[in-house]
Write a structure and sequence with these properties.
270 residues, alpha+beta, 10-stranded antiparallel β-sheet, two-stranded antiparallel sheet, 5 helices, globular
Length: 270
C-alpha cells in the first residue's frame, strides 16, 4: 500500500501535467495608438531599442486646453536603467521620440492621419508643426509605422516586468525603432528626425506632438497637440497647449479699454 507521502507526490505530479506553464505576455496594439521609442547610438544598450505603447492618439488630441497629466505606462525608468545604464537620463547618445499612424480612419482622424514628435530647440520654445502631405505620401509613411507595430506585436518579444505596455526589441530586428530613425530622417518622412536627446539631461528636453491630417495641399502645416516631458525616474507627462487669444479678441479688448477710458474722462469732466 502506498504511503500518504507517495500519494501526495502523485497528486502534485498530476497537477504539473494538467496545469499549463504561465506564458509571457505579448505587447498589444490598437489602431490609433502612439509609440514612445528609445535608442542609443553607441555605448551601453546600443544593441537594444525600447518601445512603449502610450495609448490612443485621441487622448492627447482631445485633451482640454491647458490640462496636463502623467502617463500610466508602468515603471519604464527601471527598464531604461537596465537597458541603457544608471545615468541614461544624462546621455548625449540616447534618443527618444513619439510616432503613430491611423489606418483605417478612426473617429476624428481620417485614414493615414499621422502623429510625430519634434524636440523643442531651444528647450521651452514651441516648435512649428510638421507639414501635412498627400494621402499617398502619408500612406507610405504609415506603412513604415505599421512595420514597427508588427514587430511590437509579433510574439517574439514580451512585455517587461516593469511595464505591461513596453518591450525591449533588439536592433537586429528588421523593424526596430532604430531602423526607422537615423537622426537625420525618421520613417522616410521627417527631415531632421522626430527624436530628442538627453544631451542636456531630462530637464533640458521636451517633445512637441504634432498631428498631420491628410491633405491635397502639402504645404499646409499640421497642428501642435501638446508637449511630452520625462523625469530622471522615467515618469512621462503630457501638457496640452494653452490657446493664444485670437486677434479678434485682442481687438475687442482694445476697444473695450478705449470705451472705459472715454467713460472715465466724461465722469471727470462732468
Amino acid at each position: 500500500m502506498k504511503t500518504n507521502t507517495t500519494k501526495a507526490l502523485l497528486v502534485l505530479a498530476g497537477f504539473a501535467v494538467i496545469t499549463p506553464f504561465a506564458q509571457a505576455q505579448t505587447p498589444s496594439y490598437t489602431n490609433g495608438d502612439l509609440f514612445l521609442g528609445f535608442r542609443a547610438s553607441g555605448g551601453t544598450g546600443a544593441t537594444s531599442t525600447y518601445l512603449v505603447n502610450i495609448g490612443q492618439a485621441s487622448t492627447y488630441r482631445d485633451a482640454a486646453d491647458g490640462s496636463s497629466f502623467s502617463l500610466s505606462i508602468g515603471n519604464i525608468g527601471a527598464d531604461l536603467t537596465t537597458t541603457y545604464g544608471a545615468t541614461w537620463f544624462d546621455r548625449a547618445d540616447l534618443f527618444w521620440g513619439i510616432v503613430g499612424g491611423v489606418t483605417p480612419g478612426l473617429g476624428a482622424d481620417g485614414n493615414n492621419t499621422l502623429y510625430a514628435s519634434l524636440q523643442q530647440q531651444p528647450f521651452g520654445i514651441e516648435t512649428n508643426p510638421w507639414d501635412r502631405r498627400s494621402n499617398s505620401q502619408q500612406s507610405s509613411t504609415n506603412t513604415q509605422i505599421t512595420g514597427l507595430k508588427n514587430s511590437f506585436v509579433s510574439g517574439q518579444y514580451s512585455v517587461t516586468g516593469n511595464s505591461s505596455v513596453a518591450a525591449i526589441i533588439p536592433t537586429s530586428d528588421a523593424s526596430s525603432w532604430e531602423d526607422f530613425n537615423d537622426g537625420a530622417l525618421s520613417f522616410g518622412a521627417w527631415n531632421g528626425g522626430i527624436e530628442g536627446s538627453f544631451v542636456n539631461s531630462t530637464e533640458g528636453t521636451a517633445l512637441d506632438l504634432h498631428r498631420m491630417a491628410t491633405s491635397s495641399t502639402p504645404s499646409l502645416d499640421g497642428t501642435r497637440e501638446g508637449t511630452f516631458t520625462i523625469t530622471d525616474a522615467g515618469a512621462v507627462s503630457f501638457a496640452a497647449p494653452i490657446p493664444e487669444p485670437s486677434s479678434a479678441l485682442i481687438i475687442a479688448s482694445g476697444f473695450g479699454m478705449l470705451g472705459m477710458l472715454r467713460r472715465r474722462r466724461k465722469t471727470i469732466n462732468s
